[in-house]
Specification:
- By secondary structure, the protein is α/β, with parallel strands linked by helices.
- The protein is built from 7 helices and 6 strands.
- The chain is elongated.
- The mean pLDDT is 93.
Length: 205
């Protein structure tokens, strides 16, 4: 499989070959489904919390005597039925983390990359080096490459100027090749790889 490498103006510079075992396998949709479920579960913070009747302040004494008042019996002014009372069976902090075997993660990644290549949503840029952060330059690159909608930019290693330039643009996300994940690939409409990032991804998988 071959793909064109473009410059910042959208002109063809060269062609590179994509490894079939990374960008050309038959996608395993069941593995992708499992991966997405685990990924989204792991994004949950699990910090939601409520106070029970034993944790809210007040309510230490019995509001009135048990019998003889004509009112319903009650033991605390902080029971869940009363205003300022505790919450019955409310959410508590919980760890939602799930795990997947390493081979399943790799298969999900290869499947996502293969879908990306098959649907022609992958663009390769020769370089994205910038002397200083400049949002307009990123916008010009995206316009020249005719990339519209949600776009993922995959860089190789640290590139703070490119990251700062793209972070204020709606629908644009940057990530390093070493931390690229299948969920981001599948979620994006377009994926813009820097040439060196393609090499890193192919060596990793």
């Amino acid at each position: 499989m071959k793909v064109q490498v473009l410059d910042k103006k959208g002109n063809k510079v060269e062609e590179i070959t994509l490894k079939k075992e990374v960008f050309g396998i038959e996608p395993n949709l069941e593995v992708i489904k499992q991966y997405i479920r685990v990924y989204r579960a792991n994004q949950r913070q699990g910090t939601s919390s409520t106070k029970s009747r034993g944790e809210v302040s007040g309510g230490g004494t019995k509001p009135w005597r048990q019998k003889g008042t004509g009112r319903a019996r009650v033991g605390s002014s902080r029971n869940p039925l009363w205003r300022h009372g505790g919450v019955a069976h409310g959410p508590q902090p919980k760890d939602w983390t799930l795990t997947l075997p390493k081979k399943i993660k790799q298969m999900a990644m290869k499947s996502a990359l293969s879908i990306l290549a098959k649907e022609n949503r992958m663009t390769v840029l020769d370089s994205i080096d910038m002397e200083m952060p400049k949002t307009k330059e990123i916008l010009n690159i995206l316009e020249n490459l005719k990339l519209n909608g949600k776009t993922l930019i995959v860089i190789n290693g640290s590139n703070p100027n490119a990251v700062k330039s793209a972070r204020n643009i709606k629908g644009i996300k940057t990530t390093e090749a070493g931390t690229l994940n299948a969920y981001d690939i599948l979620e994006a409409r377009n994926v813009l790889f820097v040439k060196d990032a393609v090499k890193t991804v192919q060596e990793k998988y």
